[in-house]
Amino acid sequence: MSILVIDALARASGSRYSTFDVVGAGPRVVAGIIKNAGFKTDLKAYELVINKPEILRKYKAIMISAMSSDKGALSRLLSLVEKINYKGYIIVGGPISFEYKELLRNNPRINYVLIGEAEIPLPKLLDKILTGKNVGGVPAIAFRDESGEIKATSPHLYTPAEIISRNKPWIEIEKSYPDHKIYRYYVEVVRGCSNYFRPVISGVNGLNCIKCFICRKGDLEKRMYCPANIPPGCGFCSVPYMFGPARSRSIDSIVEEIRELIIHGAKRIVLSAPDFLDYGRDLLVKPKPLTDPCYPEPNIEMIEALLSSIFEIEEVRNRNTRIFIENIKACLVNEDVARILGKYLSGTTIHIGLETGDTKYNSLVLGKPISVEHVYKAVKLLKAYGLRPYVYLMYGLPLANEKVYRKTLKTINKLSSLGVEKITLYKFVPLPGTAFQDLKPDIKRHSRIINLIKKKVEKHNLMSKKSLIGRKIHVLLLYNNGKYYGYPINHGPTVFVKGLTSPRFSGCEALVEIYDVAPRFVWGKFIRILAC
After folding, report:
1. CB 366 within 8 A of CB 399
2. Are β-strands 495-498 and 522-531 bridged in parallel, bridged antiparallel, or unpaired?
3. pLDDT tens digit string along 375-408?
4. What are 64's strand-pairing partners?
């Protein structure tokens, strides 16, 4: 049985509006699960399918990986399936799977929704489909029964770390993504999140914290369950509910995956984790689950062992392939952490979530363990060791008042003075599986001060990018719709490349000189091709 996995992540209504060069870990993990189970498998980016629908006919089953924000892209794929009269099975997975009732109710062409992690249920589901047996015994699957009633066989499962490590993700990226050399490939190193704090609020849309504080001070295992049924983690984040406590993959499995991705053309690899500094911390509390966001301290030995093993790969050591990490929690940053990250990753970006400048609000309302002072300290240490900090902020969050926004304005000033390279400002969007899933963004009431924050962030980002004017940087080129985009080798703002017209250099590495900037993008003059 031939099975196609379609990567529709971050395609929104059918096209990308940002992060054009990102390949998430999930679809490659899923394709690996299917291939390792003995099925003939292909993985294709959304764009390769939407433009050549006839390829769908050769597959017995199609699995579409998507997020809640990708419903438009999913709808387009389902319309395509109908148009070509496709007769096989349609399975939907990824973060969007937690909306399985809506998916199955509104999309009769979907046969099954795989809820949550795929390692355990997916091979069983495919085996049942192949043999024509009833799928009722397969865990974490949603479907319509003969009467049309929507059923789920069980809640979603959290895959043990040893099973995650045993799976070999898909690495044949040249078959799956156009211009495959230009992307940042996310390699999963930690699944799940250690923040099992919860919002300490009551009387707000079903949130009724009883102030037991088990989630903050109790036994690590007991923190997984809330007497008031409040989902774990920051109120706006679905990771703890969907993917459970942090579990680390083995060093050998990570290094093997990176080595093979490089053989197949990868030039940039992100060590993917909700928090990279959770890597190996789960081993410090084993057999308990890692459900405390800040204690114990980072497992320095494991982090260095991982990074040193990766940098033993010749292409990484010679900097022909670049390695990045993304998100970290500021409460875990200390001198040892900054030293180790600087030793291996100097010159690269690193992302820190803060959300607002009000520490009390962050803790009690958001369920976030990070103080403003944590972030200031982390920024100073990381910059001192050669990292380039980015900081996340949010607006429209529930119960955020004028005081919260005033403090956020002051915090932006401080972050600017500390030399934060970029501040990323997000609008709050309620997601399924979060404490705030039934709350709407609160923007109109505070629109004036929110606009001040937007302008201040925009000004900061513009001033920061002005330092790039006149600099010559290495970029990977992507030709699209008559234009060239450049993605900096060491990460940074997308470059609109001028002075190069022939499409034959797409996928090549080039040298460009930055000559103008905007808050989100920069413009660069093409100088020469460095490698193809």
Report:
1. no
2. parallel
3. 999 999 999 999 999 999 999 999 999 999 999 9
4. 6, 92
65 DSSP β-pair partners = 7, 93
The whole-angstrom separation of Cα 332 and Cα 330 is 5
Q: Which two tokens stand for residue 164?
A: 């995650």
- In terms of pTM, does the model score above 0.90? yes
Q: How far apart are CA 15 and CA 17, in angstroms?
A: 7
**Host H or E run for residue 359:** helix 359-364
The answer on pLDDT for 322 being more than 70 is yes
Tell me, what's the pLDDT at 502?
87
| % of the chain beyond a pLDDT of 90 | 89
Task: Could you list the beta-strand ranges (E) of 418-464.
Answer: 422-427
In sign, the C-alpha dihedral spanning 44, 50, 54, 59 is positive
CA-CA distance, 298 to 309, in Å (whole number)? Answer: 18
Residue 295, helix vs strand vs coil: coil
Q: How far is it, in rounded angstroms, from Cα 243 to Cα 161? A: 12
Which amino acid type is present at position 97?
S
- In the 8-state DSSP scheme, what is residue 467? T
Spatial contact of 387 and 350, defined as CB atoms under 8 Å apart: yes
Per-residue confidence band for 16, with pLDDT thresholds at 50, 70 and 90: low
Q: Compute the distance between CA of residue 273 and CA of residue 325 in angstroms, rounded to an integer.
A: 8
- How far, in Å, CA of 373 to CA of 359, rounded? 8
Distance from C-alpha of 432 to C-alpha of 435, rounded to nearest angstrom = 9
Q: Quick one: pLDDT at residue 228? A: 95
How much is the pLDDT for 133? Answer: 82
The single-letter code of the amino acid at 465 is: K
Residue 504 has pLDDT above 80, yes or no: yes
Asked whether residue 14 carries a pLDDT value surpassing 80, the answer given is no
CA distance 7 to 169: 14
Q: In 433-508, at which residue ranges do the beta strands (DSSP E only) sit?
A: 472-480, 483-488, 495-498
Q: How far apart are CA 265 and CA 393, in angstroms?
A: 35
* 3-state SS class at 299: coil
